[in-house]
Amino acid sequence: MDQIFLDLINYARLEYVKHITSNGNAQYAAIINMSLDYKSKFNSFNASVAPSISQLAHLINPYFIGMGNPFCVDCGNPWSLAVANKVVQQIPNDIENSILIFGQELGFTPGLGSLQCFFEEQLSHHDLLLNPDSAFFNPYKANDFRQVKRHSHTWGVYAKFVAGLLNVNSRDYKKYLIVDPKSNVRVDRFEDHCFYSELYDSPSANHAHRPSISPERVSFFQSNEFRDFLSRFKYIIIGDGDFSRDYSNLLGKLFGITVTKPVQTLTDVNKVCQIIKNKNQHIAISNYPLSSQWKYSYIDNICRNLK
Fold first, then answer.
1. Which pLDDT belongs to residue 124?
2. Whole-structure pTM value
């Protein structure tokens, strides 16, 4: 694991623990800090939260970092925090194919039916980035655990953008998403070739409208640790209507990115995508969520112009 990503995880983890403690939820901060295996920690979480499911709203993680490949070393294998702090790798200077994708929010609704998902992607998010559990949940191989194969699912659209940027044809997405019936594993993983995060901190299965990004999420995006991490990606793809309507302001406010070149506009029926090319980063901002139906030709057009 490289120092930039390690610094980001440690910063975000500390801020999240402080956040839930200050909101009167110290018992859940204690669960995060337990020196137990994930299954035991989840059992403690499950027993604690089940009688009061409304508590989940106070445990939402505005310091969620994301999933996929952050350019860590051998991110398929678990590592300990001690090892992570010792094994510091130099990030390659060539970021020609590095891809960062921002969706709207995590795609589940907090509730009794999603407690384990909440535990994995909210409460234990930072610890699982530091020490993924091949038997529980690995955020570097998330789709192996969620087993989403639909091409219209958000991750299917992500796979199409990855294929469009790397293979010049978004129809090649299946190699990154579909399980080989003979080997029962994917030929390749889309998340090996991108990192993906969310603009909003409140999970929702139905893309519920978000009037604004929370102050804590804004603070996370404005941190030096996050911006150092952001700077390593050449291609940034953002899918959100509210962001697209105020992109020139929000790019600067949230990410410290100045719009320095004319914007190219690509349209397809109800979809509008703005293309921005700065010196080191090329950015695509869509007014439409990165889910549901996207034409292959439109994704290819975006990727072609983004490059």
1. 95
2. 0.90
